[in-house]
Amino acid sequence: MHSNSLTFTAIPDCVLVQGQLCCEVRLWFLLTLPMGRVIAVANQKGGVGKTTTAINLAASFAAAEVNTLLVDCDPQSNTTSGLGFEKDPERINSYHMIMGVASAEEALQTTELEQLWLIPSHKNLLGANLELVDVEAREFRIREALAPLRDRFEFIVLDCPPALDLLTLNALVAADAVLIPMQGEYFALEGISELLDTIERIRASLNPELAIEAVVLTMFDERTNLAQQVKAELKNFFGEKLCETTVPRNIRLAEAPSHGKPALVYDPRSKGAESYIRLAKEIIERQVLAFRQQPSSDSERAVAQEISTTEGTAEHREDQAVEEIPAADKMDKTA
Ligand code: ATP
Ligand code: MG
């Protein structure tokens, strides 16, 4: 537990963030979602930036002064240590939550940021994969555990392990949408068909609402031809699902976890922190756009109009249709 919680007004550079994000987020939540949006950060490929994305995206949402919960669903516990929590087998963690011996509420930890909470992990979570193997409805454990908390948070971000195991399945069943970080490198698409097939199977049986939130390029060096080629290939494949925002390779992002802080607390002026703030903004704008395209009542239409007049930054994307990604078997794995 941290006693000196920070609000983002305490960080001068983040006042700007608040100004940019707060209005949109508030209006959106006011009318669209009675419950928080659950985003699973998943890619079974290791080391592509899932944890870095989960921590810094969640911190950026919290920067917009909305209550955000980060759930560490990975036995490696990198999200937990990256937020400055020591290894402690006694602390209630996601293993206890998923096994049903403690509630999600009991597992909640406050963090250095006033509006960011964490459900930590511990390496004993690895055992859950085996211990749940014969349990009925084993894929619904995280979804059911988080249900009582959903109306307390605007965003719930789940950091997944680098495997399509029962923990990742649980996260995808609990999620409204999956955010896929991909490294901008040769063979970036390798293995992605497996993830897309899994998402499709989950939609068909366990969670029909599961959407692909977006695909984000991480550790991206825009100066190289290779990176540009990979970006073009991914754009071709994922269409509008590929985020405009890319996350650069940035030393501050790599250093911040060893100081137990999100990058926007460790160094709010860094390119890395800035890129995740932009990513949060883009994800929120995508939600606002999706909402604007389907207003279903007069009052919603009125607020959609209000959103439209109060923020101009997303205007240029108004005409963009949310494209379905191609079938997994049609993709070019060489990107
Ligand atoms: P795993 O599959 O093991 O869970 P992951 O997908 O969660 O890994 P991270 O742990 O986020 O990946 O990142 C892998 C390594 O790369 C870490 O050392 C991290 O600090 C570093 N890293 C991630 N993103 C960046 C970046 N944009 N710039 C520099 N270093 C980065
Ligand atoms: Mg990780």
Q: Could you please describe the fold and organization of this structure?
A:
With 335 residues, the chain is an alpha/beta fold. It has one domain (8-316): 3-Layer(aba) Sandwich (Rossmann fold). The protein is built from 14 helices and eight strands. It has helices at 12-31, 50-63, 78-82, 94-99, 104-107, 126-131, 141-146, 166-174, 192-205, 225-238, 251-255, 263-266, 271-293, 298-310; strands at residues 37-41, 68-72, 109-110, 116-119, 155-159, 177-183, 211-220, 242-248. It has an eight-stranded mixed β-sheet with strand order 3-4-2-5-1-6-7-8, with helices on both faces. A hairpin with a 5-residue loop joins strand 3 (109-110) and strand 4. Helix 1 (12-31) runs parallel beside helix 13 (271-293) and helix 2 (50-63) packs across helix 13 (271-293). The protein is globular. Bound molecules: adenosine-5'-triphosphate (ATP) and magnesium ion. Residues 50-51, 74, 76, 78 line the site of magnesium ion. Magnesium ion binds at residues 50-51, 74, 76, 78.
